[in-house]
Amino acid sequence: MTDQATTTRQDWISDQEVRWCPGCGDYSILAAVQLLLPELDVKPENMVFISGIGCAARFPYYMETYGMHSIHGRAPAVASGIAMANPDLDVWVVGGDGDMLSIGGNHLIHALRRNINMVILLFNNQIYGLTKGQYSPTSEVGKVTKSTPFGSVDHPFNPISLALGADATFVARTHDMDRKHMMEIFRRAHSHTGAAFVEIYQNCNVFNDGAFSEITSKQNRSSMLIPLEHGKPVRFGDKLEKGVVIGDEGARIVDVADVGEDALHVHDEGNTNPGIAFMLSRLADSPHEPTPIGVFRHVHRPEYAEAARHQLVEAQERQGPGDLQALLHSRPTWEVT
Amino acid sequence: MTDQATTTRQDWISDQEVRWCPGCGDYSILAAVQLLLPELDVKPENMVFISGIGCAARFPYYMETYGMHSIHGRAPAVASGIAMANPDLDVWVVGGDGDMLSIGGNHLIHALRRNINMVILLFNNQIYGLTKGQYSPTSEVGKVTKSTPFGSVDHPFNPISLALGADATFVARTHDMDRKHMMEIFRRAHSHTGAAFVEIYQNCNVFNDGAFSEITSKQNRSSMLIPLEHGKPVRFGDKLEKGVVIGDEGARIVDVADVGEDALHVHDEGNTNPGIAFMLSRLADSPHEPTPIGVFRHVHRPEYAEAARHQLVEAQERQGPGDLQALLHSRPTWEVT
Amino acid sequence: MPDTVLRPPREIERVIIRFAGDSGDGMQLTGDRFTSASALFGNDVVTLPEYPAEIRAPAGSLAGVSAFQVQISEQPISTPGDAPNVLVAMNPAALRVNIEALERGGVIIVNVDSFEDRNLEKAGYDDNPLEDNSLDGYVVYEVPMSSLTRKACGQLGVKPRDAERSKNFFALGLISWMYTRPIDPTLDFINDRFEGNERVIEANTAAFRAGYNFGVTTELFEYKYTVKPAELPAGTYTNITGNTALAWGIVAAGVQAGLPVLLGSYPITPASDILHELSRHKNFGIRTMQAEDEIAGIGAALGASFAGQLGFTTTSGPGLALKSEAMGLAVSVELPLVIIDIQRGGPSTGLPTKTEAADLLMAMYGRHGESPVPVVAAHSPSHCFWATIEAARIALKYRTPVLLLSDGYLANGTEPWRLPTATELPDISVAFTTSPNHTDDDGNDTFWPYKRDHNLARPWAIPGTPGLMHRVGGLEKEDGTGNVSYDSQNHEHMVRTRAAKIAGIAADIAEIEVEGDVDADLLVLGWGSTLGAIATAVDRALDDGRRVARAHVDHINPFPRNLGDLLSRYEKILVPEMNLGQLSKLVRAEFLVDAQSLTKVSGQPFTALEIEEAIEEVLGD
Amino acid sequence: MPDTVLRPPREIERVIIRFAGDSGDGMQLTGDRFTSASALFGNDVVTLPEYPAEIRAPAGSLAGVSAFQVQISEQPISTPGDAPNVLVAMNPAALRVNIEALERGGVIIVNVDSFEDRNLEKAGYDDNPLEDNSLDGYVVYEVPMSSLTRKACGQLGVKPRDAERSKNFFALGLISWMYTRPIDPTLDFINDRFEGNERVIEANTAAFRAGYNFGVTTELFEYKYTVKPAELPAGTYTNITGNTALAWGIVAAGVQAGLPVLLGSYPITPASDILHELSRHKNFGIRTMQAEDEIAGIGAALGASFAGQLGFTTTSGPGLALKSEAMGLAVSVELPLVIIDIQRGGPSTGLPTKTEAADLLMAMYGRHGESPVPVVAAHSPSHCFWATIEAARIALKYRTPVLLLSDGYLANGTEPWRLPTATELPDISVAFTTSPNHTDDDGNDTFWPYKRDHNLARPWAIPGTPGLMHRVGGLEKEDGTGNVSYDSQNHEHMVRTRAAKIAGIAADIAEIEVEGDVDADLLVLGWGSTLGAIATAVDRALDDGRRVARAHVDHINPFPRNLGDLLSRYEKILVPEMNLGQLSKLVRAEFLVDAQSLTKVSGQPFTALEIEEAIEEVLGD
Ligand SMILES: Cc1ncc(C[n+]2csc(CCOP(=O)(O)OP(=O)(O)O)c2C)c(N)n1
Ligand SMILES: Cc1ncc(C[n+]2csc(CCOP(=O)(O)OP(=O)(O)O)c2C)c(N)n1
Ligand code: SF4
Ligand code: SF4
Ligand SMILES: [Mg+2]
Ligand SMILES: [Mg+2]
Predict the structure, then answer these.
(1) D252 and D380 in one domain?
(2) Is residue D93 part of a domain?
(3) pTM (2 d.p.)
(4) Rounded to the nearest whole angstrom, what is the distance from the C-alpha of residue A198 to the centroid of ligand 3?
(5) Exposed end of chain A (fewer CB within 10 Å): N or C?
(6) Buried b vs exposed e over B124-153: b needs ≥16 C-beta within 10 Å?
């Protein structure tokens, strides 16, 4: 199987029974990944999935690849070590909004600024699933959960803004109701050299059902999702009657009829300045308003593991390969006879 | 002393000998704070300085206030507890770029998103001082330090961008060479309700001397610092010949003569959309180009501790003050006689 | 509902019933209701719930089995019992997972409707166990619960799929009949719990009555039973889990200390419920902060303590590991703080929903440097209340972080608790320092934050107090002044003083008491949640004429001052523990006694039988 | 430089010199140079540097004093000596801080220029100690080092302020003359170190010669001394600090394992130098990652181990506390990993620049659940090299995280080290698993990640290996398959198996050996950096005719297999420790022997005298 250049979906399915709740959005994300991989030129033995703890973080068990279900919040750190150790590996990090934005927020932003080669899939269900329903750093203010019976009082993160604030080189958003879109975004993320951050709106039908349905349900999508496509004006709506313009106040939604097509912002994911991408990320503060999806940013910057490896090569070229005896004798020595 | 409404600088100086290296920028920041406080209507006993570990983090010892020199990276967390416990206290957090952006990055961004009432002073010297000179998450790529003898390979954070990405409500930058500017910014930060984030460019003359001198030295300031002033066009240069415009590519520096005064961006710190502030934060990637200083953002959003307290008041109004016996009997009971 | 079984109910002293089904089947609710009804009836009751680790494992799978065991008794009891006498199995997987625990010859009541091919296969049965004689040693009752429930509800117009959801109430009705339980409490409960949802109330009521009537009318069952009320000390009782008792203990500690409480916590099984419970009691002035992680949780709690509140933080093993460094800070700044660890199966993520008591040595030593903290352990669900107040008392009086240990078994298990009256609760309040406590060489009054009282506790002067401004921190401090000091002798003095402060608490805690045969050769020494199993085992051994004593340590650091003496009086010491021998290590090191370990690390509490057998083995004959 | 002192140098066996001055005075460099020159000359040398905690405390203050003690000897020695014989004090603060340590009657050489009012005041002297007879018991030499240096340099046109910077070389020159040290190594050093900066080379050289000549020409000093070369085993020697030896040990472990090394680390005193040193050796294929915190550091190292590299992480106490949870994961996933803790004064931030050995119990037990890890301790600067290789050997062979303990004293102290040849280094390589290791029920070849070898180690199959894809994690795993398992019996089995694996290492490590009087009544048992002081003390006691033996444990978990036996042979056991008795607790619990503690927690290593006195006390007379 693994010697052939091509794989089938079946090759990526491990023998472990999938144990998410029936109806959980995690299933469709898993399917999207398992359907995509056969389309890429990758081998299961070179693929490593690393996760922290949470429902989402069970992901690696279901993949017939190498994997580690590590500890809560630390997946980006473990994955960094793997990416540094072996450039031939395809390292994917999977985790929930609690795992990667609450306890693990720091490792996430540092992996992003370092631009270390890995695909990071953030399953954002705006809730703690595995611990049975507490609010998360992406839950909306006022959220009533087990730990906030009178409503939460803290303002949530906008994960796309946070990633851009950390100067991530690849930043995208997709959702669990659109397999094709997920596959396309994952494909793009995989092709990126560096840290590719993908936020996936994921429905937890047990503890936060319908959190995204206002924007992701079939009937609402065209009016509530704003697809970002490189080189194209940003438009949406049933008849593409809405669009986005950038002004002195930020990005805002307009009727195309009011401003004219030419005034629309033309999306440039390769803009080295993340300012516009950041503005786009602020179009929606919560999944109850028209929300951009797609690739916000995709730029090139030296990759950390490669740069580190490069220093090793340079050192060898400069100093020759390591010679232990020479090292031991590198400080002043004397002989006793 | 502390009974009087007014204080003098002397009232804010503790009896502990200041032990930073001679010439360290920390001295002037300490002086700025100790000079400012007498101008504010505050009492030493209501003032609490919390820090982590690092040279900067020694700050509380030198203030004749309450204070805790906690552990590396955790000051925002400890300060959060204090701010929640007692709204009458003025809580200040002080730390270095290692303390608050490396090990403590997560607590920082969470304090900012929660908007919990405290002034956060980040002493950014782009180096680890206390541990004698390793690079930090704000050091430029290629930095040669003890831990990176062949140059660092990771891309630094832009602290202002990061704070804006975390949706901070007050974000400002100042530097240790301009006492007046520092005092003004600290005053503004102090008057803010919520988390006020202030990045201070601070010279570590022992391990990273002159890191900011290209922009902060007296002779360079006018051409290299871009003052942000609310309601005013963003201009700088000896003769204010330069200005900033916002365009479809982001913010950029122009010759005023080329674009005309009216095209200049008029700074609005109260813009609820942080997009423009973010763009301004990207004007300079390092302190070797013209760099904005001043207040990037200052908006109102409910403060966390106050919102939490409000829930207590509401609960008491709804349920009456807590009655322990009633609580104990709140589940089904039965009598044994 | 007249009873057509002619024979009067047989009186039995106790019965152990285990309800088992798919996680979706509502077995926890069923068990809980049966328990409450029995408690209200006056029995002594102890429970042991068991959840699967997955939120919702696939229906019908072995991983998805959820169970709830309860012992009801006319005698005071302290465990949920060893082997169940009765197993209610709602599907083949539930039977398969639980059959091993059932006593030989015990009663099995199955929902026969669920024993069809698909479910049998999911449970890994090649043949239907109801048909292949594999259950020959047991008394098996096959009850078509699903279909009978559907029928009962169908009359109300409930759709079959929805009706099926009520089948746990059918089972509850049947068992309620079988053990002559009062039915009103359950009917009331249904009305309360599902208020506003008439359809569900009707369906559940119908199912419950159908189950009850099934017992009444069919002749399937030979007997019904009754368990008389237990003779418990007079008082008002409630049935309580350890986590609720602990949360209430936190509330009570705040009230009895006269201080607002701040809980800084991060969710983790099996501790989260404490956060949940406390967050409902804001009218007590309790602040709960769901922090970004465990370190922030303890950091915020310590900050609150610095500001003059009573800081708590709750967690389980992985979270406690993360708090290590901050606990060291709390030791150094000497502020009151209670850290609560609800232990679960380890190492690492381990078995999150199973119990274990293997964090003891981490509690003792899991910090760098010499960093002593008092350690208190709860020994039963209701004791979680008292242990919490005790931990807070020590924290406040000695200005020290205190570690309180509970475990998953106590957390979710229940027992009837005689509610204390206001006067039974200790006053644990302490005074803040509000004026200078020292006169300097020049005769000026000044404040020394590290000038200690006779308990070696330092003053607690909180921000907002004029004139007492001071700084604390994790660097070593000069004795008295609290200024940073790198002086050798001062450090030596401070390290030893901090140790002496904690050791000195021994004078301020209860002596340990021996139960059983005081003059026996063998002492069974326990800590934590093993109390019930040990007490039962020792009682049984005594009943069998064995000479055995027992003692239980609730304070592990420092130990009760008479513990050494006590241990020296017994030739043999047996220490049952849900770890590989951690308390045993401590007493061996401290008292040089040859304590023998009885260890169990299966995620399950000890049964009394296991301890009884170990006692027999040690005693020989 | 002809010597005008007529008398020939007096031969002495050893001398202990302490150089002390302001942090800005370059005392570390001076001490280091004197040490190197002496080592090159053939003496045995052991050093003890002491830094202030502040980067640069105010000049002239007590807090700013930096000192460097060195013992040079013609006999093999193992400590920097107890009380210095000679104190070089560059300013009043240095005198004040260090005078207490000096032997009664010892020599004090002061830079008299610095004894002016401002400096005296900063040092807290009311009167000038050089004038108030307070130094009467000592031999005091007042040397105007600043002015003489200024003069010597002035001739080269160096500005007085700059010249003053060279005064440490004046002191070095003077002491070099006094102890008849060769001067060429120092002149060479100056040329090397300051290459490219001619001005500085000239100034330092001039100052050094001026100091030397001051000894030669003035008649201030009655004698000069010489210490003959020591008789050390033949070989090539270098003078090495513990941290350098440790870093080289990491390099060597990688070479001897045939694996690339990844160090994931976060800077912290006194461990940072290991990161610094390793980051210079990239040509060995060593990756060093300065992580965002300690957790990321160990996380990355574990990731590298998973990917087939040799993962290391270095830290000190506060960082080790933070790594607790991740170490538990490493225990659970059973991958090779070496965690290195350079202990410092605690608790909390404590005394970052001072030594202590109080993290032992945290190393043993600082993780939740039953989470055993091997613990190895280094006992001298050069032993840090060997202990690192040994830790890596165990980690690789048994697929386990291993904790290696060193401390601030070893880290910065030096000793001459006979460099090993290539053949003296062990081969610690292990093989990756590259093909299926199991046949399933259907006869198919498959890979079981938790099928163990005879050492109970699981296979190490790394990403990139076709056909062996598998997942590991922190949840409990089924024996063999490694699939997640919540089964009770499996958990019990796995907990005990992990414990057995670590315990089994006892068969694979050296037995502990006794030195001294094997048949004595008293055994002095040590671990870690106390070795030198213990050995010296025991030797002296033996010289005094005392009957005493000693043994030193380098493996603390598991203990050497003969330790119990050994301990049982001695009536009395004394355990000197730089903590409050941690090893003592372990041996008492394990072997039920009445080990007595001798404890010191002052941030300073033991002196041999302290141990000698304790031996005397225990032995009585
Ligand atoms: C150190 C630690 N703290 C807490 C937990 C408990 N815990 C497990 S998963 C989780 C959060 C789950 O939420 P999220 O990451 O959003 O994942 P989801 O379940 O929603 O997919 C928590 C708090 C843990 N396992 N370890
Ligand atoms: C848990 C922990 N890790 C590491 C350290 C060591 N440490 C102390 S301060 C510091 C960084 C100092 O840099 P920064 O925060 O930028 O402060 P500065 O000294 O530059 O003001 C480090 C790594 C520590 N004290 N605690
Ligand atoms: S709890 Fe929510 S996120 Fe977790 S498996 Fe169930 S539906 Fe999915
Ligand atoms: S090391 Fe740098 S930051 Fe620290 S006190 Fe000295 S000059 Fe200031
Ligand atoms: Mg989630
Ligand atoms: Mg810094």
Answers:
(1) yes
(2) yes
(3) 0.94
(4) 19
(5) C
(6) bbbbbbbbbbbbbbbbbeebebbbbbbebb
Does B18 contact ligand 4 (Cβ within 6 A)?
no
A51 lines ligand 3 (CB under 6 A): no
Q: What sign does the dihedral A95-A99-A105-A107 (CA atoms) show?
A: negative
CA triplet D158, D159, D162: central angle to 5 degrees?
A: 90
Q: Which of C393, C424, C455 is the last residue of a domain?
A: C424
Buried-exposed string C561-581: b where 16+ CB fall within 10 A, e elsewhere: bebeebbeebebbbbbbbbbb
Q: Categorize the per-residue pLDDT at A3 as very low, low, confident or very high, splitting at 50, 70 and 90.
A: very low
Q: How far is D602 from chain C (nearest CA, A)?
A: 5
B155 reaches D (C-beta below 8 A): no
Give phi and psi for D443, each to the nearest 5. 85, 10
Q: Indicate whether C233 belongs to any domain.
A: no
D583 falls within a domain:
yes
| Listed residue (C531, B324, B157, A324) closest to D420, CA to CA | A324
**Chain B, chain D: beta-carbon pairs less than 8 Å apart:** 71
Residues of chain C with pLDDT under 50: 1-5
Closest-CA distance of chain A to residue D40, Å: 5
Determine how many CB atoms are found less than 10 A away from the CB of residue B219: 8
Tell me the chain C residues in contact with residue D351 when contact means C-beta distances shorter than 8 Å: 475-476, 486, 491
CA quadruple B125, B128, B130, B131: dihedral, nearest 10: -160
Q: CB distance A275–B279 less than 8 Å?
A: yes
> What is the number of the ligand closest to the CA of A201?
5
Domain count, chain C: 4
Residue C42: its pLDDT value, please? 87
- Å from B227 to nearest chain C CA? 35
Q: What pLDDT band is residue B140 in, cutting at 50, 70 and 90?
A: very high
What average pLDDT score do residues D418-423 get? 94
Q: Do C55 and A149 touch (CB under 8 A)?
A: no
Is residue C343 domain-shared with residue C369, that is, in the same domain?
Answer: yes
By three-state DSSP, how is residue D512 classified?
coil
CB of A206 within 6 A of ligand 3: the answer is yes
Would the CB of A29 count as within 6 Å of ligand 3?
no
| Three-state secondary-structure class, residue D137 | coil
Check CB contact of B82 with chain C, cutoff 8 Å: yes
The minimum-distance atom of ligand 4 relative to the CA of B56 is 3
- Amino acid C3: pLDDT: 47
Whether residues C194 and C262 share a domain: the answer is: no
Report the percent of chain D where pLDDT is more than 70.
99
Judge if C274 and C413 occupy the same domain: yes
Q: Are C263 and C326 contained in the same domain?
A: yes
| Domain final residue, candidates C455, C472, C506 | C506
Amino acid at C126: D
Question: By residue range, what is the domain housing residue C26?
Answer: 10-226
The answer to whether the CB of A35 is under 6 A from ligand 3 is no
The domain covering B9-211 belongs, at the CATH homologous superfamily level, to: Thiamin diphosphate (ThDP)-binding fold, Pyr/PP domains (3.40.50.970)
D420 and D440 fall within a common domain: no
pLDDT digits (tens, 9 = 90+) for B101-114: 999 999 999 999 99
Instruction: Answer whether C600 sits within 8 Å of D332, measured CB to CB.
Output: no
Residues C290 and C399 in one domain: yes
Strands B47-51 and B66-69, bridge-based pairing = parallel
Clarify whether residues C340 and C395 are in a common domain: yes
B21 CB within 6 A, ligand 4: yes
Nearest residue (by CA) to ligand 3, atom 2, is A204
What residues are in contact with ligand 2 under a 6 Å CB criterion? B 53-56, 72, 95-99, 123, 125, 127-131, 136, 204; D 266-268, 294, 318-319, 322, 349
Query: Which CATH number belongs to the domain containing residue C579 in this structure?
Result: 3.40.50.920
Of B240, B238, B296, B291, the C-alpha closest to B264 is B240
Which neighbouring-strand residues pair with B124? B201
